[in-house]
Design brief:
The chain is of the alpha/beta class. The chain has seven helices and nine strands; from the N terminus they run αβαβββααβββαβααβ. α5 links the parallel β7 and β8.
């Protein structure tokens, strides 16, 4: 078929115009200023890291945060604090991998004063919480009677404590949820409204980050509280009820009944570490389940995200108790 002679010398049609530039992918923000878009970590299948949770690459994996409590924050709670923050190379009887890297840990006492044995039962050495360091106690008792306090184990105990943290802290003065960062304060005043320390003189060369197990506890929150005496457990549970759960965050409160002497504290510290390993293994499994959608509510302490772990705790404790029948245990689920 012949072509129209009028079109033989016509110019070719112009090329189509280029497509308009793509609009930038601006996420839609919610009323609180946060974005509806999932973070890049969720897009590639990695669970979102909650600000209060320590980076896993720095800890060898997820770690629960622990708090150990006894009467004076000197013997039993400090032995457990040391065990939980010292790298281990063993495995529990249930073949659960042990803590090759330390757990985030803090510790407290529930007594009104720090009481250490003196020359007689009616002459204890008494100190204030939050204002006296283990170093100060050590030097004072060494000056009083080095032979006596070395023989009864007080000086070796204080020597150990000096390597863990600055000094004894009182549970009732702990402001839960307030960051534990910067310099520690001496001479703390207690607020009647908040029940926590609100002032005090800063201690030179003493920062929270120097405590063993401080990494991961900067947010002032823990997942597990372990007391070492039933009256301490009662004091902790009563105090949490009095505070009224302002953070609405679940916390498991255990009691492992340990006699207040150096030998029993060593045994109790080993048992507490074993319990911590089993709890952490279960928490890691349940955390992986709820983190599949890319939003990690487990680290944020959401009750729904932790329901699976909460339901497994009684079974874990029952199995642990069978192996440690001489350390009677209590447990309850409380709220911060």
């Amino acid at each position: 078929m012949s072509t129209d002679p009028r079109r033989r010398n016509a110019a070719p049609p112009p090329p189509p115009p280029p497509p308009p530039p793509a609009e930038p992918d601006i996420p839609i923000t919610q009323l609180d200023g946060t974005s509806d878009e999932k973070p890049s970590s969720a897009a590639n299948g990695t669970p979102q890291q909650h600000p209060g949770q320590q980076p896993e690459d720095a800890t060898g994996g997820f770690k629960l945060k622990f708090c150990t409590v006894c009467a004076s924050n000197n013997n039993r709670s400090m032995e457990a604090h040391l065990r939980l923050t010292t790298p281990q190379a063993t495995a529990t009887p249930s073949n659960t991998p042990s803590s090759f890297l330390p757990y985030p840990t803090i510790s407290f006492g529930t007594g009104s004063l720090v009481r250490l044995p003196g020359p007689s039962i009616t002459q204890p050495n008494v100190y204030n919480f939050n204002t006296t360091s283990y170093e100060d106690m050590y030097e004072e008792l060494k000056g009083k009677d080095a032979r006596l306090y070395s023989h009864n184990g007080i000086l070796p105990m204080l020597e150990r404590n000096k390597g863990v943290k600055w000094g004894p802290e009182r549970w009732q003065d702990w402001r839960i949820g307030v960051p534990r960062v910067g310099k520690r304060k001496r001479g703390v005043e207690v607020s009647n409204t908040t029940g926590g320390p609100v002032g005090g003189e800063e201690v030179a060369d003493s920062e929270y980050r120097n405590d063993k197990g401080a990494m991961g506890t900067e947010a002032g929150i823990v997942d597990i509280v372990i007391t070492c005496e039933e009256r301490c457990w009662d004091a902790v549970v009563d105090d949490l009820l009095t505070r009224g759960s302002p953070l609405n965050r679940p916390v498991h409160v255990f009691n492992v009944d340990i006699k207040d002497n150096h030998e029993e504290a060593l045994v109790g510290g080993k048992a507490i570490l074993e319990l911590a390993d089993e709890l952490n293994a279960a928490a890691r499994q349940e955390r992986d389940v709820v983190a599949k959608d890319g939003v990690n509510g487990f680290d944020a302490g959401h009750a729904g995200a932790r329901q699976g772990f909460d339901e497994r705790v009684p079974e874990i404790l029952a199995g642990w108790q069978e192996r440690w029948p001489n350390l009677p245990a209590l447990w309850t689920l409380a709220w911060f």
